[in-house]
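I have been asked to look over a protein record a colleague put together. The record follows directly below this note.
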Amino acid sequence: MNQPKNYLVRRAGGTVRLACDDQAWSRADVLSIDEYPWYTAGEKQDTTAAAMYDDEAIYLLFVCADKHISAVETQPNGWVCKDSCVEFFIAFESEGVAKYLNFEANCCGTVHMGFWAGRDDCSLAPPEVLDAVSVKTSIPTPTKEEFPTDDGWWLAAAIPFATISKMVGRDVAPKSGDTWRANFYRCGGKTDPQHAAWNTIDHPEPDYHRPEFFGTLTFE
């Protein structure tokens, strides 16, 4: 098994605006979602991610090169993973990561979120929880068809710790020095449905629900 990667979640120096060009993101370290454990063919398009936090929330920024941007899912907690999509999975125990939360969002900002107490035990986020999660993207429409000029998109999100705690059933707001286990993912969409990960996954078929392969987040 490969050694898990580590990422330092910087503390935000002020207000974080959910935009790719917000100056606040200059403080954040950048990671690459560049492992392709199930690659067979096609172009490996670049994806980067960054994270920051403050007392209220964890903030995410994904930047995706994409020549085939597509999305059809508009229903919250729908199958956004079949669209051009990014994902963030987190677990809160240093040992035994069978329980974890998944945040997924397509390029148009439709969100899927659930808490997994086991492989077959998922509680999807209720509407009031999803409403507390803020997402902004560079795609201004609720769905997206591929277009010859497609070249990329970005997505930024703010996930309040109170919202995560409500799903997990206990307080998970981190303090400086705390660690979470996590992985970042990218789905390619209709034309180029490659599956990329920050930490690689040793499994014969595409499967992001493999917390045993999560890396580590350390909070500044």
Summary: Residues 6-219 form a domain with the Immunoglobulin-like fold (CATH 2.60.40.1190). The chain has one domain: 6-219.
